[in-house]
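@channel sequence for tomorrow's demo:
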Amino acid sequence: MRILIIEDEKKVAAFIKRGLEQESYAVDVVNDGAEGEHYAAVNEYDAIILDIMLPKKSGLDVLKDLKASRVKAPVLLLTARDSVEDRVKGLNLGADDYLTKPFAFEELLARLRVLMRRGGYGSHLLKFADLSLDPATRKAKRGDAEIELTVKEYALLEYLLRNPNRVLTRILIAEHVWDQTFDSETNVVDVYINHLRSKIDKDFPKKLIHTIRGVGYMLKEE
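structure tokens (generated this afternoon):
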């Protein structure tokens, strides 16, 4: 799951990024409205956290243009203003929710989960064949056997389970599991796929994670 934070207060942005990464999200951060709009237009995000007060281009102007260009990611507005007018204007422009600073991270996380659940992401059990993953408890199982996962292994498995029977390129996987600083020349995707295979497939006769030579990987039944 990939989140874009458009926030010019660097301490606030770092606080949100750190918390979301601990929850297994891939997070991109930009600090002005113009660059944020560009990121949202050229990348695929599962949600956008957008501050209203931004340099170069205001959050409300960014929101208006993103909705006009049919960017599908749900938008959570952040504002330091306790102004009904700002909140109403943002919602009228297409924001999906808002949060007034200062806020507790747990509230932001809960609101994000609600927004993504509306878009087909949520805490419902993910299943494929005899493999399951519960986003609420972060527990994975193959049959009756529980599987211990690291943060990145969890994020990778979740992405695979949300896209079964689809060829996922290494770039797609990297974009959704890592952030924009990811080095596409490294073999980290292959390394983590191998880690997952050792836990998901190694002790089971039916293999689920398959290599599509020269392209990427696919979760499918043999």
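heads up for whoever presents: Residues 105-118 form the longest helix (14 residues).
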